[in-house]
TrEMBL record:
Native species: Rosa chinensis
Listed name of the protein: V-type proton ATPase subunit a
Major localization class: membrane
Pfam families: V_ATPase_I
Record localization: Membrane
Residues that span the membrane, as ranges: 422-446, 467-484, 547-565, 577-600, 631-654, 749-777
Length: 821
């Protein structure tokens, strides 16, 4: 199904007439011709190289080349997304970019430039992160040494002031030994400093202690805030550490443990003067690197913005070229290797447009030989093509979800435009809820141009696609809501005052006792006085149940009538006389008669029991009806209809298989005298051979009879079950009305009765939430699914085969907006 808005109107009941076309295109103009056909979007190519793998086809190298260009464009898109840039959709392409060769060179250069920028930026970022960590180590470890030096100075002063025997408990235990030992014999300790992830710091400390048996001194300091790790580039919480050790063996163990824990090590000196000098140098380098990184990012973003202005056009051009070469691979090469041969389907009305496109391609490429357009005769079933617009396309999709119509078969989508939203509204009848649906749908319709160019979520996109279906559902819901006289379950006297009034002042609105008819009948819909009365539920149940039967029988009759038009269109007299006629007789002898009784009872005001009439029509057809008689001659009519229904069953079952067998024998009588083939047209010879081979197939009478038996049983039982299935209209309408009434009475009115503002606000919030969540979302989905079932099962199975396949033309307009994998 293809959407076209600018074409002349056509009968949507039958699909577009199609033809199989044979094209012979010179190789010089083949690419341009396929491109013009893609712009036209009215030709479906057949794959003439189905036996070849993708790598064995003629244009595999060109497709690989386009795939590489598409990969570069995906790389550009990912880089723009990471940089937070968006690609423009309003730019125009230069003439150079229309040339695929020049575009390929340009994309290659841009990719190389971008990769080089990314590599340089990553290297600079890594260096910057390392210097930043080094600065933290210098600051934190320098703080260790400053505090240690201050503590040592204080202890020295304490030693000088106090006598040897009066020192505090904090004084070093080996102080006397240190004072008497030669300073040149003191042990020189080594140190390792760096940063370790904070989550691994405890395990790091424990492993160090165990590996060195406690012969190290570890000091850690927490770094405020996360630090960018130079290796992974991720932000990690880290601690600065410094380890003092003695001996090369301990040093080797410490270095291995640091590598295992991915601790970044940095050199450190205990000279305070050099520490301050190194901090100054590192800070200067950080400042320079920051300026360099910012300048590189600015240049990179400028390049990405330049790419973004042309990205959509480049992407579309690459997709078009790739689809063109994919299509060219479906064509076969002529024996002279000078032409390409194509076969495919196109609408009969598009023949002139396709020929003009081929002539234009020949003229633009200065080709000396024009393309040949030839219509082929075939017995192959053509594809189904309905031209729809944005309004009818959603309804057609509902039908196609069940099955695509057979070629030229009657299309249920024509009637679905009206019947689907109407049956939905019968179950969803409330004009307050209908207005809410209408406002939500109008929002999508008014802003459809904006939403159609955006990527929406799955649910929103599905709702937006069916906006016109929901729009019709809302309009019909308002209509049926006015008939039911329900506005969020509240009745209104919109079309005039009620026909009923109180007999005396003591009567109440909650009961029919004391009410009498004082005016003419309420002009439209249900009288508001019925709501809240004792007989409201029995009255509405009777009304909606009978109305459901009437609607169901009418729609099933429509389906059978459409089967007559299908049989007449395809000149199938057997289906007219031995399928349509008995089906109409059987259905209307039983349920058509029931519908007639309902209408007569409504018109006459009779109190006849229709259950009793229908049951005893089968049990005692000759019994006197008594008070259940609605009109003169009803008993005789019932016997006549019952006999007609009984006769219709064998009428459907037996004649058709025998007539099919007779037709088969007449068609193949004298088949031994075959035509002498001339051999001038091998294509026609092959088709004739195929036709003859099919004709020699044996006629399986038993199989045909069993199939007809199944079809007859299915229709007879389905006539009963399908009519009962339409009672879902009554059930869901009742459920919707009762739920709406409960939310109004037990939530809103209950909160109003407390005379408390807070409780009233809470009640309004709960009422709105329940109305939106249950009635406007869940009930809408439920009624939608039930209406869908009524169309697919009860309506379409009367006439619709749905055994066709869609017309899928080669069209640039149908290219997916998503990049190919």
């Amino acid at each position: 199904m293809v959407t076209e808005d600018c074409w002349p109107t056509m009968d949507l009941l039958r699909s577009e007439p199609m033809q199989l076309v044979h094209l012979i295109i010179p190789i010089e103009s083949s690419r341009r011709a396929i491109s013009y056909l893609g712009d036209l979007g009215l030709f479906q190519f057949k794959d003439l190289n189905a036996e070849k793998s993708p790598f064995q086809r003629t244009y595999a190298a060109q497709i690989k080349r386009c795939g590489e260009m598409a990969r570069r464009l995906r790389f550009f898109r990912d880089q723009m997304n990471k940089a937070g840039l968006s690609h423009s959709t309003m730019s125009t392409m230069s003439d150079d970019d229309n040339d695929l060769d020049r575009l390929e060179v340009k994309l290659t250069e841009l990719e190389a430039d971008l990769l080089e920028m990314n590599s340089n930026n990553e290297q600079l970022q890594r260096t910057y992160s390392e210097l930043l960590e080094y600065k933290l180590v210098l600051q934190k470890a320098g703080g260790f040494f400053c505090s240690a030096q201050s503590s040592a100075t204080a202890q020295q002063r304490e030693i000088e002031v106090q006598p040897l025997g009066e020192r505090s408990i904090d004084s070093p235990l080996l102080l006397e030994q240190e004072m008497t030992t030669d300073p040149s014999k003191h042990v020189k300790l080594g140190s390792v400093s760096g940063l370790v992830p904070r989550e691994k710091s405890l395990a790091f400390e424990r492993i160090l202690f165990r590996a060195t048996r406690g012969n190290v001194f570890l000091k850690q300091a927490v770094v405020n805030g996360p630090v960018v790790d130079p290796v992974s580039g991720e932000k990690v919480e880290k601690n600065v550490f410094i380890i003092f050790y003695s001996g090369e063996r301990a040093k080797n163990k410490i270095l291995k443990i640091c590598e295992a824990f991915r601790a970044n090590r940095y050199p450190f000196t205990d000279d305070l003067g050099k520490q301050f000098q190194m901090i100054t140098e590192v800070s200067a380098k950080l400042s320079e690197l920051k300026s360099t990184i910012d300048a590189g990012l600015l240049h990179r973003n400028s390049l990405l913005q330049t790419i973004g202005h042309q990205y959509e056009q480049w992407n579309l051009l690459v997709k078009k070229e790739k689809s063109i070469y994919h299509t060219l691979n479906m064509l076969s090469i002529d024996v002279t290797k000078m032409c390409l041969v194509a076969e495919g389907w196109c609408p009969v009305s598009a023949s002139i447009q396709i020929q003009n496109a081929l002539q234009q391609a020949t003229f633009d490429t200065n080709c000396q030989v024009g393309a040949i357009f030839q219509v082929l005769q075939t017995k192959e079933s053509p594809p189904t093509y309905f031209r729809t617009n944005k309004f009818t396309s959603a309804f057609q999709e509902i039908v196609d979800a069940y099955g695509v119509a057979k070629y030229q078969e009657a299309n249920p989508g024509v009637y679905t435009i009206v019947t689907f939203p109407f049956l939905f509204a019968v179950m969803f009848g409330d004009w307050g809820h209908g207005i809410c649906l209408l406002l939500a749908t109008l929002y999508f319709i008014i802003r459809e141009r904006k939403f159609s160019s955006q990527k929406l979520g799955d649910i929103i996109e599905m709702t937006f696609g069916g906006r016109y279906v929901i729009f019709m559902m809302a309009l019909f819901s308002i209509y049926t809501g006015l008939i039911y006289n329900e506005f969020f379950s509240v009745p209104f006297e919109i079309f005039g005052p009620s026909a009923y009034g109180c007999r005396d002042p003591s009567c109440r609105d909650a009961t029919t006792a004391g009410l009498t008819k004082v005016r003419d009948t309420y002009p439209f819909g249900v009288d508001p006085k019925w709501h809240g009365s004792r007989s409201e539920l029995p009255f509405l149940n009777s009304l909606k149940m009978k109305m459901s039967i009437l609607l169901g029988v009418a729609q099933m009759n429509l389906g059978i009538v459409l089967s007559y038009f299908n049989a007449k269109y395809f000149a199938d007299k057997l289906n007219i006389w031995y399928q349509f006629v008995p089906q109409m007789i059987f259905l209307n002898s039983l349920f058509g008669y029931l519908s007639l009784l309902i209408i007569v009872k409504w018109c006459t005001g009779s109190k006849a029991d229709l259950y009793h009439v229908m049951i005893y029509m089968f049990l005692s057809p000759f019994e006197d009806l008594g008070e259940n008689q609605l009109f003169w001659g009803q008993g005789f009519l019932q016997v006549l209809l019952l006999l007609s229904a009984l006769v219709a069953v064998p009428w459907m079952l037996f004649p058709k298989p025998y007539f099919l067998k007779k037709q088969h024998e007449e068609r193949h009588q004298g088949q031994s005298y075959a035509l002498l083939l001339t051999g001038e047209d091998p294509l026609e010879d092959d088709q004739e051979d195929n036709h003859n081979s099919k004709g020699h197939e044996e006629f399986e009478f038993s199989e045909i009879f069993v199939h007809q038996l199944i079809h007859t049983i299915e229709f007879v039982l389905g006539a009963v079950s399908n009519t009962a299935s339409y009672l879902r209209l009554w059930a869901l309408s009742l459920a919707h009305s009762e739920l709406s009434s409960v939310f109004y009475d037990k939530v809103l009115l209950l909160a109003w009765g407390f005379n408390n503002v807070i409780i009233l606000i809470i009640g309004i919030i709960v009422f709105i939430s329940a109305t939106v969540g249950v009635l406007l979302v869940m009930e809408t989905l439920s009624a939608f699914l039930h209406a869908l079932r009524l169309h697919w099962v009860e309506f379409q199975n009367k006439f619709y085969e749905g055994a066709g396949y869609k017309f899928c033309p080669f069209s640039f307009a149908l290219l997916s907006s998503k990049d190919e994998d």
